[in-house]
Every structure is written in C-alpha cells, then in structure tokens.
Amino acid sequence: MEKKYLIKTYGCQMNEHDSERMSYILESLGYQSTDKLEEADLIIYNTCSVRENADNKVYGHLGSLKKLKEKNKDLIIAICGCMMELKEARDIIRDKYKHVDIVFGTKNINSIPYLLDQYNYSKERIIDVEETDDIDEIQDAIRKNQTSAYINIIYGCNNFCSYCIVPYTRGRESSRSEESILKEVKKLADDGFKEITLLGQNVNSYGKDLHPCTTFSDLLNKISLIEGIERIRFISSHPKDISDDLIFTIKSNPKVCKCIHLPIQSGSKRILKEMNRKYTKDEYLEKINKIKKEILDIAITTDIIIGFPGESEDDFLDTLDVINKVKYDQAFIFKYSKRTGTKAAIMDNQISEEVKSERFQILLDRVNDICLENNSKYLNREVKVLFDEISKTDKNMMSGRTDRNKIVHVKYNKDYLGKICSVMIKEFNSFALEGEIIER
Ligand code: SAH
Ligand code: SF4
Ligand code: F3S
C-alpha cells in the first residue's frame, strides 16, 4: 500500500513554496498526499518563528500529535522550517516532544530521502540542521496552484532589523543563479503557468553576490522575454533599496505587475532608527511619491509593527500619518513580538499588551476604511483578471487578481479558469471586488 504524507505549513510564501518542494520529493519517493492526520504515515510541520504566536501554534499542534503516535507506532513525525534553525526551539523539541522523529533545517530540504532512510534504518531521532553555504539550485515542486507559481530567487537577509529573527533563521543573502531561475520559469511556462511570483526577503538585493554581478531589474526584464508568462510579481522589497532603475522597469515592462509591497514598519523617525531600517519617514514618503508619480494607479501595500519597545503616542501618530498619506491598498499590521536573540528583545520600555491592542485596533480600522475607499473606485470599472482559484468556501465561485493585486470574485466558469479576462466590477468591500465576466 502506498504511504501517505501530510505537510502543515506556517509562515510566509517562502515556507509555502518550501512545502511544495517537499511534496515533490515525497511524491518522487512514492508517497501520496492526504489531508487527514489519522491517515498519514508521515507528518511534517514546516514552521515559522517570526512572532511568538507562530511558535505557540506549533507547540500546541505537536502536543496533540502524541496520541496519534501512541496509536500508530509507525507514524513518522518530522519538523522543519525557521523555528528549527533556532537552538532554543530545537532544545524544547528535544526535551519536551520526544515523539518528534526527524528535525531538519531550511537548507536541508533536498536531504529528505536520506533522512527518511536513515530514520527507517535506525528508528532513532535525527536532527539535521547543518549550516551550508551551498544553495539549492534543485527546485522541483508540486505546486498547489496551476496558474500562478512561486519561485525563489534569493535566500536569506543581511539587514538585521532589530526586531527580526529572519536573518538568524534563513542566514545571509545568497542569490540563485540567473541561469537556473530562467530555466525554471521556462519550464513553468511550458507547463502552462501564466504568472510567477519571485520570492526573497529583499528581492532588490538579487544578483549583488553573483559573479558577474547583475541586478533585479535585469532579471525581471530577462524573465519577461519568456513566452507564456504573462504576469510577474515579486515580494518583498526593502524601501531603502528601491532604485530608479526598478521603478522604471515596473513602469515600462508590461508583464511586471503594477503593485509593490513596501514595508514601512513604523512612521516614526526615532523608532525607524531603533529598528535599524535605514530610512526616515520623509525618505520613505519621497520614494512613494516618486513611484506614484511614475506609475499611474500603482497599488502599494505594506507591513506595520505597532508597539515596538519605547513606541510613544507621538511615534504611533507618525505611523498613522503615513497610512493617511500613502493610502495603502493593503496593510498587514502586527503587534511587536519579542524574539529572543534579536537586539530589540533586550531593549527597555517594552510596550504593554493593552496599549498594543488599542493601537492595533485604531490602525486596523483606519486601514480598512482606506482600503474600502480605494476599492470603491473600481465600481462599474472594467479590469483584467487572471483567474487561478475555485473558491474554497463556495464551489460556485472562483477568484483571481488584477495586475494591481486586487482579489476579484466571479461566478465559477471553467472556460475562464487559468486565463486573463475582462470583468465588470459590481460590488466591493475592504478586501476584495466582485463582478461579472465580460464575454466577448
Ligand atoms: N523581509 C521582509 C519581511 C519578512 S517578515 C521585509 O522586510 O519586507 C514579515 C513581516 O513580519 C515584517 O515585515 C514585519 O512587519 C513582521 N515582523 C517581523 N518581525 C516581527 C516581530 N518581532 N514582531 C512583529 N512583527 C514582526
Ligand atoms: Fe527581517 Fe528586516 Fe530582513 Fe525583512 S529586511 S527579513 S524585516 S531583517
Ligand atoms: Fe516565518 Fe521564516 Fe517566513 S520566520 S515569515 S517562515 S522566513
């Protein structure tokens, strides 16, 4: 009988894509996917450590797997991802979660066949979180979405924002070779994918470490020459690294989507300095103005942290001011979460949960109002949507995105799934648009 696997993924798109790569490896070994825990012979938790609640969720779920393992002694439980790059988390797993059989790191995905063999042979717990400078150029994946695909272009981060654990979990920046990225995109185009999203903690750093060095804009332009790929997206960009060159590429290359995610984190000059973000509120706003001036109607999205140590009412008002000025199309707001090992974790003046919650709600309400106002402009307008998903909650509906990254829902029509088509917008809320396909 074929063995079954289940991967539970936490965290960002990078982890989602790592899970797609793991699926490919496991299915090559003969495993079949299942979404039922009781059926699985192998359960993998791909973890995130960016905020404390991400860690806690994993510990909660892992605890409940213990009973499953007692019932099925042959079940293999593995845990990987960013949490496992941190010694403290590995120690907790080692001491308190003895039913976990295999632990591996973010750079050891291609070792899965070997780890499984070794475990099956010895039946002893394996911990493989080896540091390696080699980057995985082998990136085969079974993708969840058959229209839009994620592609890693650069790993790691050199920025060391004072609150952030990512540089400790994903290591230093290292770019994949241009050749292997282009090969992968070509293959995706041949397989019928229409859209790709280039992934990196800071995509603007792409190519600086390659020999000969190259730029992110250059990569975008080369990818756009591949026939079949109709849309190119990318996340994330660090505001300090947005170059005129990149603004020009977004503006002039029709395949590059007119949307950009530019995390501000805070509007306060003082807090930004403490965060080690390397830009001021004014410099950020200047860049935004330039982008808006050059690229008509560009959609701008952001990440914001509230309650960073020492954040005063005035600092918070500065953040609110940026929101009012930029009028983001979407903003992900996070309560600051203390990450052991980062600089901010030992700063004085940690902010109380109460103040964080209060400020969080004020920002959220404001952001939702602005998004509603932005989306209202789409009413009775025609937009081009690439449909890539049947709704999970209502099988009669499907959804896709505009090149400005607006989510659009329409009635399910199989003829248009996987294609770009025109839609007349009839309804909207803060998060999405709804409309009707214009049949031509
Ligand atoms: N490299 C990306 C961000 C990756 S982490 C970038 O710089 O754009 C995604 C988001 O999580 C960050 O933008 C930040 O807003 C949030 N984040 C990171 N560390 C956090 C922490 N300790 N507490 C709360 N939010 C945090
Ligand atoms: Fe974290 Fe800053 Fe790097 Fe983004 S740029 S991953 S927030 S350290
Ligand atoms: Fe989380 Fe790692 Fe992504 S910490 S946000 S899964 S890079």
CATH structural architecture of the domain at 4-128: 3-Layer(aba) Sandwich
- Predict the CATH topology of the domain at 4-128: Rossmann fold
Low-confidence spans: none
**Helical content band:** 25-40%
Q: Which sheet architecture does the biggest sheet show?
A: 6 strands, parallel
Which homologous superfamily in CATH is the superfamily of the domain at 4-128?
Answer: Methylthiotransferase, N-terminal domain
Could you walk me through the main structural features you see in this protein, from its secondary elements to its overall organization?
- [4Fe-4S] cluster 2 binds at residues 157, 161, 164.
- Residues 376-439 form the TRAM domain.
- Monomer.
- The strands form five sheets. The protein has a six-stranded parallel beta sheet with strand order 2-1-3-4-5-6, sandwiched between helices. Strands 15-16-17-19-18 form a five-stranded mixed barrel. Strands 7-10-11 form a three-stranded parallel beta sheet, sandwiched between helices.
- Helix content is 34%, strand content 22%.
- It has 440 residues and is an alpha/beta fold.
- The longest helix has 24 residues, at 353-376.
- Among the domains are: 4-128, Rossmann fold; 137-257, Transcription Regulator spoIIAA (2-Layer Sandwich), CATH 3.30.750.210; 382-437, OB fold (Dihydrolipoamide Acetyltransferase, E2P).
- The protein starts with a strand and ends with a strand.
- Helix 11 (313-326) packs parallel to helix 12.
- It has twelve helices and 19 strands.
- Bound molecules: S-adenosyl-L-homocysteine, iron/sulfur cluster (SF4) and FE3-S4 cluster (F3S).
- Iron/sulfur cluster binds at residues 157, 159-161, 164, 166-167, 201-202, 238.
